[in-house]
Write a structure and sequence with these properties.
By secondary structure, this protein is an alpha/beta fold. The chain has helices at residues 20-28, 30-40, 62-82, 86-96, 121-139, 151-154, 167-170, 180-188, and strands at 9-13, 97-101, 144-147, 162-164. A four-stranded parallel sheet has the order 2-1-3-4, sandwiched between helices.
């Protein structure tokens, strides 16, 4: 999710949740469906929210509620520190953030029975993209990566620009201004904590 080639903040997760809003949105709300398709094609026209789960027109969707719940405090802090209206801070973060799900398939609860998911081609593609593209951006200082879940499966160690949540932090994956990930985002924007 988001502009994968131009993001400055990559958040690596396990898999997306699942709720009735997913079925409704994909089958009944053409603007949402079109935004998802544009995201898959990595087509982000000017004036849109590249990270659609920060776009207020989709505030009815569980994805917006989850992400806004995670990042709302960070957005507020960016707004205050940069003297921007909250809406402009949210739009700015939407342009700078991308999330990559290790297992890109929705589920209401993730179970790794027998670790078969790790053998999926889509999982390998996500890991390869992170290793071959995201890590290079991080190493060159053009981005940061925040690994919130399953750091061992992403097979990245903690290094400059890579923030790894411990197993205790991973369950809720908080990104408040006082969390490890939230602080990293604010530091990326040059905001004093």
């Amino acid at each position: 999710m988001g502009n994968l080639r131009r993001a400055k903040i990559y958040i690596l997760l396990l898999n997306p949740g699942l709720g009735p809003h997913d079925y409704f949105g994909e089958s009944k709300v053409s603007s949402y469906r079109n935004a998802l398709l544009r995201n898959l094609k990595q087509d982000h026209p000017k004036g849109t929210y590249p990270f659609i789960f920060l776009d207020p027109q989709f505030s009815w969707h569980g994805g917006y509620q989850w992400w806004h719940g995670k990042l709302g405090g960070v957005i507020k802090r960016i707004s205050e520190a940069k003297a921007l209206p909250y809406s402009k801070a949210r739009r700015r973060l939407s342009a700078d953030i991308a999330s990559i799900e290790l297992v890109p398939y929705h589920s209401s609860s993730f179970r790794d029975y027998g670790k078969w998911q790790r053998e999926l081609k889509s999982v390998q593609l996500a890991r390869d993209f992170v290793k071959k593209f995201v890590v290079k951006r991080v190493q060159s200082g053009r981005a940061i990566a925040i690994i919130t879940r399953k750091a061992n499966v992403w097979d990245l160690d903690s290094r400059s620009g890579v923030i790894v949540y411990s197993s205790g932090e991973a369950r809720a994956a908080h990104m408040t201004p006082s969390s490890k990930g939230g602080r990293a985002i604010l530091e990326w924007y040059g905001i004093d904590l």
